[in-house]
Structure formats: structure tokens, C-alpha cells
Design goal:
6-stranded mixed β-sheet, alpha/beta, 5-stranded mixed β-sheet, 257 residues
């Protein structure tokens, strides 16, 4: 019999040790009974009412997410909260977050590979015991704008970018909220940084440093890890059915008014 704990232990020992998460993170078993028998699981980037409903509809006993459903202390747990909905339905939840960002074959290795990078190496940062950022070589691009177009096509994502006006043949990548590592990336000498989210002042700092900066979307830079993780779990636990949730990027719901 496979249990929820068996999945936790496999992720911890074979894929992405939970001890490698950043100090501010809350990855691990967040909801449920570790000893519960497991026959079906759903994998999702986010725990939302929609993904909880998908897990319930397929009869899953476990939802494996990238982003934690419980991130900070709660004073309330009300009916509309996905954590409440999981508990009510008896569905456990394991979150593999920054530990999966940093892991070999995790979020950022997959992102670097998707972008065709070579000689990929981790870039040490101040956050977490395992580095999240990857640095590597790219086929030469004439400008940051040319690289941004390539990234947009490779990830099927709308992008925001700053073109530093220089050729690019070496870049850093970090999916999700990678702008927190901007100072380390600038210090590394990378000619461009590709991440998920970047704010106004991040673009100003990149311009001041003469480095191109591309924000390709939090969802779009992280979602490749979900089907890849599902495949690894299917191979290890053939007796369990693993499904990948149907999810959409936030910009799918946004429109200009």
C-alpha cells in the first residue's frame, strides 16, 4: 500500500530535499494524514478552488502543488479557503516550492533547458542552502529585444523586457519571483536575466547595470515542472494514478478596461 508519506519521502530523498527550501518558505506536508492510503493524486502549480475541485472529482487523496496552500500563520480558516476545502474533502496536500526550484531537474533546470541553454551552472545566492538561479550559455542574440522575442516564442508567453542594447550570449534564469536575486545576477556578469516577475525598480536597476531583463510570467516560467514531476512519480509509483491539473496563467483572466 502506498501512503501519502511515501510520496513525501520520495520527493524529499530522490527529487528535492525539503531541507533545501528557503528559510521563509513553507514547503512539505501541509494538510492531511501522512499514513493515509493513496490511490490517486493531482499535481498543480497552485492550490485554488478549481484545482481542489479537480482533485475531488477524480477521487484523489493527495494534491501535490508547487506553491504552498499554507504560507503564513492563519487566524481564520473559512469555507472559501482552499485549505478548508481540502480538509473538508479529506485530501492531503504536499507543497514542493523553493526546494523544487533549486533541485537538479527542477523548475530552473527545466527552464534553462527549455530556452536551449548550455553549460548550465547554479549561481550561489543568499537565499536558501541550495541555489535557485541558473547561469548558462545561449546561442548569440543581437540584442535583449531579440532574446525577448525568442523567450516569448519558447515559453508561449507574453513578456515584458528591458533591452540593454548589447548582444547576449550568456544569461541567468530563475522562474517565478526571481527578481529577488537581481543583485547577485548583476554581480555574476550575466548579459541578460530571464525570470517570471519583475517590478518597475528592477527594470531600472537592470538598465543602470547595463543588463537586459526579461519578465516572462510567473506561471509560464514554472509550469513545465508540473508534468515533469508527474512523470517521475508515475515511474516510481505505478500503482498510483497521477493527473496534471488544468490551470491557466493569471493573464488569461486579465483584460484591459
Amino acid at each position: 500500500m502506498t501512503t501519502v508519506h511515501d510520496i513525501y519521502k520520495f520527493i524529499d530523498e530522490k527529487i528535492a530535499p525539503f531541507s533545501d527550501q528557503c528559510g521563509w518558505d513553507n514547503a512539505g506536508l501541509q494538510i492531511g494524514d501522512a499514513g493515509a492510503a493513496l490511490h490517486g493524486a493531482l499535481l498543480a502549480l497552485d492550490v485554488t478552488p478549481e484545482t481542489v475541485a479537480q482533485a475531488a472529482d477524480m477521487g484523489a487523496q493527495l494534491l501535490i502543488s508547487h506553491h504552498p496552500v499554507i504560507f503564513s500563520p492563519r487566524r481564520q480558516l473559512l469555507a472559501g479557503d482552499p485549505a478548508y476545502q481540502l480538509i473538508r474533502r479529506g485530501i492531503a496536500c504536499i507543497a514542493a516550492h523553493t526546494n523544487l526550484d533549486a533541485a537538479p531537474g527542477g523548475v530552473n533546470d527545466l527552464l534553462a533547458e527549455r530556452l536551449g541553454m548550455a553549460d548550465i551552472k547554479p549561481l550561489p545566492t543568499k537565499e536558501g542552502p541550495a541555489p535557485c538561479v541558473r547561469v548558462g550559455a545561449l546561442a548569440p542574440f543581437s540584442s535583449g529585444a531579440a532574446l525577448a522575442k525568442y523567450v516569448s516564442e519558447a515559453l508561449a508567453a507574453p513578456v515584458r523586457y528591458l533591452d540593454a542594447g548589447k548582444p547576449v550570449s550568456r544569461a541567468a534564469v530563475c522562474g517565478g519571483k526571481g527578481a529577488v536575486f537581481l543583485s547577485e545576477v548583476i554581480a555574476s556578469g550575466a548579459q541578460a536575466y530571464i525570470t517570471g516577475d519583475a517590478g518597475h525598480h528592477d527594470f531600472l536597476d537592470a538598465r543602470q547595470a547595463g543588463m537586459s531583463l526579461i519578465a516572462a510570467g510567473h506561471y509560464e516560467t514554472e509550469i513545465p515542472v508540473i508534468p515533469a514531476l508527474a512523470e517521475r512519480l508515475r515511474a516510481a509509483f505505478p500503482e498510483v494514478t497521477f493527473h496534471v491539473a488544468k490551470e491557466y496563467p493569471v493573464n488569461f483572466y486579465m483584460k484591459r478596461i
